[in-house]
Amino acid sequence: ITTNNGNVVVSTVNGFVTVQNDDGDASPDVDAGSGIVSLIAGGIGAVDQALTISADARVVGTGGVTLIGDHMVIDAAVDAGTNTAIASSPRSASIRAPSWRPPTSR
């Protein structure tokens, strides 16, 4: 998903969200440029839904990035530029992000 500096919102009511690198190149797989990226895996009732950013995938939204899912696995780069990247797991503390680092000032 790529925009020309426009916001990207991917949201499910009751389903998982997975970002993966299908083409094998280094370009971002979700790219809002200077816009904001919001990836939301919604769940209904007791059904937990996962938000996964697979290894070698990239998410770029230098206006900020919001990630929400009941269970999250962030195995790839998330670039929020100098803005904030927020990861929230509303119903559990299951966030695994071994390669994620908070943004630094540029």
Number of helices: 0
Sheet/helix structural class: mainly beta
Any idea what the radius of gyration is?
A: 13 Å
Report the uncertain regions: 99-106
The profile of the biggest β sheet is: 4 strands, parallel
Mean pLDDT: 84
Main sheet: which strands, in order across? 1-4-7-10
Fold and architecture overview:
With 106 residues, this protein is an all-beta fold. The two termini are 26 Å apart. A four-stranded parallel beta sheet has the order 1-4-7-10, with no helix packed on it. The protein has strands at 8-12, 17-19, 30-31, 36-41, 50-53, 58-60, 64-69, 71-74, 77-79, 85-88, 94-96.
Structure at a glance:
With 106 residues, this protein is an all-beta fold. The chain is built from no helices and eleven strands.
Keywords:
single chain, 106 residues, mainly beta, 4-stranded parallel sheet, globular, disordered C terminus
Structural topology:
Layout: E1 8-12, E2 17-19, E3 30-31, E4 36-41, E5 50-53, E6 58-60, E7 64-69, E8 71-74, E9 77-79, E10 85-88, E11 94-96
Parallel strand pairs: 1-4, 2-5, 3-6, 4-7, 5-8, 6-9, 7-10, 8-11
